[in-house]
Amino acid sequence: MVEAHYMPFLPWSLSWLAPFIGALLIAVAWMLRVRDERVYGYTSVLSILASALVSSYAAVNVFSKGPLYAGRDLMWVSWLGVSLGTYYDGLSALMAVVVSWISLLIAVYSVKYMEGDWGYGRYFFFFTFFVGSMMLLVLADNLILLFVGWEGTGLCSYALISHWYTDEEDKWVGRPGRRVLGYPMYFEPSHSGVRAILFTRVGDLGFLVGIAVLYTVAGTFNIVALASTAPEWLSSLASKGVLLLTLLILTLGALAKSAQFPFHEWLVTAMTGPTPISALIHAATMVKAGIYLFLRLTPILVAGALALTATPDYTIVSSQLQSYYTIIAYIGAFTAFMLASMALVSDELKLILAYSTASQIGYMFLGASASGLLLGAEGVISGFSHLVSHAIFKASLFLIAGWLIHVAHSRFIDPMGGYAKYMKLTALALWLSGLSLAGVPPLSGFFSKEMVIHVAYTASPLLAVAAITAAALTAAYTLRVVVRVLHTPPYTGAGARHQEHHLGEAPPTMLIPYLALALISLVIGLSWPTLSEVYSKMSELTLAIGSPVEAHVELSGLTLATVAVILATVVAVSTLYAIVRANLYALAQKAPLDKLYNFLYDRWYANPIIYMVFLGGGIRATGLLKEADIGIDYTYHSLTPRAGSLGAWILRSLHRGRTEYYITLYLISVAVIILVLLLAR
Amino acid sequence: MKELGAPVLWATIAVPTLLAIASQVLGFRSRQSVRLLAYLSALTLLIPVPLVVYYLGYKRVGALVDPLILDLSAYNIGFIGLVLDGLSAPIVVGISIVTALVSIYSVKYMEHRIDELHGEEVRVPGLNAYFILYNAFSSSMLGMAYSSNLIGFFIFLELSLITSFLLIAFYGYGDRLRIALMYFIWTHIGGALFLAGTLYYGVNAGSFDVLLVETMEYNRVLASVDIGGLATLAPLFIVVGLLVKMAVFGVHMWLPYAHAEAPTPISALLSPNLIGIAGYALARFSPTMFPQFIADIRDLLVFLAFVTIVYGGFVALRENDFKRFLAYSSISQMGYILLGVATLTGFGVAGAMLHYLSHAIGKAVLFMVSGVFITEMGGLRNMLLMGGLARVYPTTAAITLIGFMHLVGMPPSLGMWSEILIVLGLIGGYNPGAPSSLAVIALLVIVAFMVTATYSFIAMRRIFFGPLRQGRASKGGEVMDEFKIAILIIAVSGIIAFLVVELLIEPLRASVNPLLELVGGG
Question: Does A538 lie in the same domain as A465?
Fold first, then answer.
């Protein structure tokens, strides 16, 4: 591995600092009650542009010279050895480029999309602050700085999910009135915001405990230092038997942030946020933070374990790592399958995309875990390449959804339909991004998914079976949306005709971002041979990998089988909807399919169960403790004074001024004293 | 250490009260002169902040000593001196910032409150008299944090109790006389227990000095005195006395009454500043006086801390009265301070002191926000009647979010650092060597910290989000007067502290190590 080049803090850290400065300026403008929307929008776009330019320049430098390390000696908290270091290696530099450019495109889209919104300034403040936090998370050289970015993204996610906090019904998620096991299945923005921050915070706290354990053992938060001392702390933790648990607790953060089972519920209802936010935070970037952390740490763990090969500790370290990666791989595979199954029946456009996001991130975890199981780097690269493909096509899909929901005046897909003839370019973008999601060659999604499936197969054929099944479901739900929205007439006719007069392409500043992203999906796919070179070079430049990893897709029996399954699904679903015009939707709501339909529609009942246990349990606990508190209050402030009064009354009753009484008492007392004195002798 | 050229620390204690007395005696009762008094007091109260930043943070001076030292060693009391070191710096900064800005905030609030009381035909002392008590209360808290001597500490403690008792009794809400008395009795029991234990140590040691003002070293005589049969009872008195002051679970019952029914500016000193000082005292005094005892009860205190966090948080979730909700949240927050101190590790104690400051900032902001609704929305305190208020009070909503972030420990608020340090202290102190112990600690941390996050964000939603109630439509933009700017400044100071936390953490690091050497750690 090439030694990093040390760089000054500025300008190299501007990639995360610039958006923060932008956010600060926006906050000041907001406090000064600036009314002009352009001030907010332009400040945001310009600061993100600066970030994108700096990170691109840095990436170019990384690929030509090797890793860059800026501001290593600029200490923030010297006791903890926490510096304001910006670390660009192969992984972080590419990630920063992807994040910053997608953010820029979505910022441009937002300027138009949010026009006239009553929370315009607030929107751009959190948007920009989010980009800064995300870039910090990606580029941080130590886990505390990463945690700062991590929590910053969570805060912005919370604020933006509840952006329309006055909770009008058209901003909800879920069918109003629908309940399961007594718990509502519709969510207001302000409710969704609280859910998001609380669900993810469970993981964040796990992450914090995990890094505290690492620090106690390794004495550092610095990622580079952790990589170099990995063999020592791995054996130290493993010999105490806590390696597996430490890693699992640490990974809670990643699982919660990336909406893996059982934390996926927050992401689903996060769709109450404005659509560009769903595109940026809840599809392209923030939800990738978890998998990014996992990709960051996996090579360190693998290299650390490999360095121990000849030592006696190797067995315990590798066995605990095996257990760890097996657990994560199955969580990933299960999430991929579970959420894809929900997407099959959902009738809300953004919800389908949200299910799909959690499901696709499941693939990334699966791929990266395979790295740990195989003690190699292929899985990490497959996970990362799928991350990039997904960020691009899913951002595009969400931005398209934003426009479609706008023209349909509904978040449901039933009133949508036949849009292809009104918006050719949007249709093209939807097809390209959709097919990429479905994993159809030669789009980018095909290659990256193929890599994941391949590496999963090498690790365990069972995992590959789950992945291929989920791939078929993915193709099915994607095509269902694409065909129904673009090519078949709407299911609910009401309003369809009167919409027609404003059906058309989105304004250029909205159209260009999603069209560009869709085309990039295609271009990446077509130029995969070149791109695989980039990924291979990237792995060479990444901390704790340091050697080139082959990133091309081999034409094997497995590949052919997967492609066959996907293409068959694509053709079948398209035929059913577009040619046969089958109303599967109506069919599914009749017995005997309705049970399955409701099970999937209500998200496997995960939400009511979580609510029953935690919310129900919590409410009961608060009630119980409140009662206890009243009891304590009563004991102290009512019983005790009464006991005091009673004592006073007894004593008082002895002093009523009756002489014979006093004499008797006197005699008794004297007798008692004498008795005591005698006995004490 | 550095001896200051002038008795600046004494001045920060004496000047505000003297100013208020002078203006009362001279009869400056106009609104303008009271405002001037508030601002002058605020400026004086703020003096410690630049001292901490420059000397302790920037110059890395170990401690500042006020030149004016009262020599009472002839009476076996020791030296009554005022000092400022890394351990007390977060406490002093917290008191300084909060008391100064609440002083400015008080003008509008107390005018409103006194009018209200006059409307109820209750005769209460006027605004100027309020400021005498207010400033004496603020100064007494600074005095506690500065004290190097146990008797000095106790005198300031009693002063704070008397002044705050009067403030509640005069200007409080509800059944204020009963509540003031309840507050007085409870905290007096705490104070008396503390005094009883302290006397036993001091009389036997021939000195009540905790820190030797000459060298700023800890007085090792206190811990080495042989107190025979009372070796358990005396420290127990002190610990219990301080725990009553902190209002940890079991002896917390006075706090919801006192803190909810005090006039809001006083609530904004009681909760953020006063109760946490007991946590600071626990950290400062117990290793000096009874290192063995405190090490022995470490597990018990850690457990009590978790119980307090969870209990206070859960009961807070059930409260509908905004101020009572905040009061229970304060109980819960004291659990964090106790947790950090009880770990007896450098990170834990430093985290606890830093948490004092982040809680001071966060809770002061939140109490002051509750005062905004009380003054501007006709005494609105019931959270069931709130909802959607962010539409009317967007800036206040933003400030409140910052306040809650301090409690929850989210960046960019100082709370994040205290949270990290406390967790590091806990993990470092227990160094889990088996999966089961790690699982227990992780579970406790997650549950405890989640409770805080839960009540914070749920309250945020109940107050500010959702549809706005009928008839509460926004009448133009939110007005930002000095009343609200004071809140904003406190909130922003927490963000600044987050950024320049090194200025507090390095002095803390320097001063916790000698302290923990006393308990054999460090």
Answer: yes
A166 touches B at CB < 8 Å: yes
Q: How much is the pLDDT for B476?
A: 64
Number of H helices, E strands in chain A: 29, 7
End-to-end CA gap in chain B: 20
Domain boundary among A567, A601, A635: A601
Instruction: For residue B99, give the nearest of B127, B132, B50, B135 by alpha carbon.
Output: B135
pTM summary value: 0.95
First to last CA, chain A: 90
Inter-chain contacts counted by CB atoms under 8 A, chains A and B: 151
Q: Same domain, yes or no, for A432 and A399?
A: yes
A329 and A194 inside one domain: yes
Nearest CA of chain B to the CA of A152: how many Å?
6
Q: Is residue B189 within 8 angstroms of chain A, CB to CB?
A: no
Q: Are A303 and A220 in contact (CB under 8 A)?
A: no
Same domain (yes/no): A653, A558: no
Type and span of the H or E element at A284? none
A463 and A576 housed in the same domain = yes
Amino acid letter, residue A177 = G
DSSP string, A449-501: HHHHHHHHHHH-HHHHHHHHHHHHHHHHHHHHHHHHHHTS--SS-TTHHHHGG
Contact A216 B420 (CB under 8 A): no
Does B390 lie at the interface with A, CB-CB under 8 angstroms?
yes
Same domain, residue pair A196 and A112 = no
Task: Give residues with Cβ within 8 angstroms of A592, minimum separation 6.
Answer: none
Which residues are CB-neighbours of A80 under 8 A, at least 6 positions away?
Answer: A144, A215, A221, B420, B424
Q: Whole-angstrom Cα distance, residue B98 to residue B365?
A: 9
In the predicted structure, residue B236 carries a pLDDT above the cut 60: yes
Above 0.90 for ipTM, yes or no?
yes
Domain span holding position A644: 609-680
Residues of A in contact with B390 (CB under 8 A): 165
CA distance A23 to A45: 11
**For chain B, what are the domain ranges?**
2-517
Burial zone of A644 (CB within 10 Å; 0-12 exposed, 13-18 middle, 19+ buried): exposed
Q: How many CA atoms lie within 13 A of B387 on its CB side?
A: 13
Who has greater pLDDT, A495 or A616? A616
Contact yes or no for B84/B92 (Cβ under 8 A)? yes
B-contacting residues in A 51-110 (Cβ below 8 Å): 75-80
Tell me the residue type at A530.
T
- In this structure, the answer to whether residues A131 and A181 fall within a common structural domain is no
Q: Which residue shows structure tokens 């966060």?
A: B362
Across the interface, whether the CB atoms of A193 and B461 are under 8 A apart is answered yes
Type of residue numbered A409: H
For A140-169, the pLDDT digits (tens) are: 999 999 999 999 999 999 999 999 999 999
Q: Quick one: pLDDT at residue A588?
A: 81
Other Cβ atoms within 10 Å of B22 Cβ, number: 12
All residues of chain A having their beta carbon less than 8 Å from the beta carbon of residue B467 are 166-168
Residues in chain A: 681
Rounded CA separation B217/B515 (Å):
9
Q: Does A483 share its domain with A337?
A: yes
Amino acid at B6: A
Q: How far apart are CA A52 and CA B94, in angstroms?
A: 40
* Domain total of chain A: 3
Proportion of chain B in helix, strand, coil states, percent, rounded to 5: 75, 5, 20
